[in-house]
Structure to design on (398 residues):
């Protein structure tokens, strides 16, 4: 569970109508990534560097040490691109279900039938021609090269699914004042500390039924990491995919792709934070609630975290124009569209267009509500229990 761009592949493999079991979805996903393609002229050197950097001789044979193969898997073509900040993360048959399962956890595909969700469609749209590269097995544009808008959508999904654990682990890391850290040390020192902090907080405020299950999961994660760490010197109990690797990888590698973590070496699992990246995680750690950050300041925090320059908020009329355009691409055959994904698509396209403009999720909600109050027959909303918006419809829009 490594490359954020692999989620583009999962979304591109899933169908909006064809029902699949997890096993069938995983097979389709792996078949796409392992499709063999000729090495394009001019890419021989970077392919050779990639194979040497990861010692992929078992996959391509010992002769590849001297002469790069003429045919490689399409996922290796994408990962060999030096523009990708990390070269690790090729999917093997043994780990076929990892990314599909992550796509379910991030709600890109539905649990059970593995059809594409609105969030999965959002990822497809923000990946642009990258999604076409997946289904057509093209070298470029590289779907693993994550642009700002797509990065923001993936960040939103990651925080929605796992934000409390991520923030607790990075709070521990920032408190340690480590300038450089490994994946293993992040798991053993900081992920375990974060799990324990969250467990104690849940117990202190009194346990609901949901909290009991959550505390159990946190305790099991912490213990599995520590147990594996205690037997690290025994080869038969150590290896890729075991708890320290597996639990830490999904909380580190996607953030490298998003520009929020730095790898000095594309082929290793050693990380650092520059000043902007440190500021992003410190901002999350200091927030009163993560939900407030996501709603009101995540876009600005992300742009600061990746070092974006000369950004500015756009006026409300521009927000509505962008939302109308995004709604046209997100709406279903019945005319409804999930409001959060509409807003994320509008923001993602805005931050990708090079003008420096952006707006926050809460501002998008406010503008939608304003237009609904002004023209209730034109802008229709469905509301979940508790008052949160769920779907929107613009009659005659799109």
């Amino acid at each position: 569970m490594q490359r954020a761009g692999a989620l583009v592949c999962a979304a591109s493999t899933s169908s909006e109508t064809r029902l699949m079991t997890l096993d069938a979805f995983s097979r389709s996903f792996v078949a796409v990534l392992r499709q063999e393609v000729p090495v394009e002229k001019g890419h021989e050197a970077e392919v050779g560097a990639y194979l040497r950097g990861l010692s992929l001789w078992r996959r391509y044979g010992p002769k590849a040490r001297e002469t790069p193969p003429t045919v490689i898997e399409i996922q290796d073509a994408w990962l060999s691109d030096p523009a990708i900040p990390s070269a690790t993360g090729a999917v093997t048959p043994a780990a076929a279900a990892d990314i599909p399962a992550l796509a379910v956890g991030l709600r890109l595909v539905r649990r059970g039938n593995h059809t594409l969700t609105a969030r999965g469609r959002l990822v497809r749209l923000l990946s642009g021609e990258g999604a076409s590269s997946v289904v057509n097995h093209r070298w470029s544009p590289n779907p693993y090269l994550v642009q700002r808008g797509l990065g923001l959508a993936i960040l939103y999904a990651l925080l929605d699914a796992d934000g409390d654990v991520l923030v607790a682990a990075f709070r521990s890391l920032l408190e340690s004042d480590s300038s450089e850290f490994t994946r293993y040390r992040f798991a053993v020192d900081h992920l375990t500390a974060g799990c324990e902090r969250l467990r104690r907080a849940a117990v202190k405020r009194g346990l609901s039924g949901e909290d009991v299950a959550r505390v159990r999961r946190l305790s099991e994660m912490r213990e599995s990491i520590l147990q594996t760490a205690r037997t690290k010197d025994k080869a038969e109990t150590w290896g890729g995919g075991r708890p320290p690797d597996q639990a830490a990888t999904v909380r580190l590698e996607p953030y490298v792709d998003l520009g929020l973590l730095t790898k000095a070496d594309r082929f290793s699992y050693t990380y650092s934070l520059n000043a902007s990246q440190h500021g992003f995680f410190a901002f999350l750690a200091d927030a009163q609630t993560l939900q407030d950050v996501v709603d009101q300041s995540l876009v600005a925090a992300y742009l600061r975290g990746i070092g974006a320059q000369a950004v500015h908020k756009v006026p409300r009329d521009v927000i509505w124009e962008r939302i109308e355009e995004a709604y046209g691409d997100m709406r279903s055959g019945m005319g409804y569209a999930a409001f959060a994904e509409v807003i994320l698509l509008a923001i993602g396209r805005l931050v990708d267009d090079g003008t420096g403009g952006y707006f926050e999720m809460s501002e998008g909600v406010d503008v939608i509500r304003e237009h609904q109050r002004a023209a209730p027959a034109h802008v229709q909303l469905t509301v979940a229990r508790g008052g949160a918006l769920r779907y929107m419809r613009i009659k005659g829009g799109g």
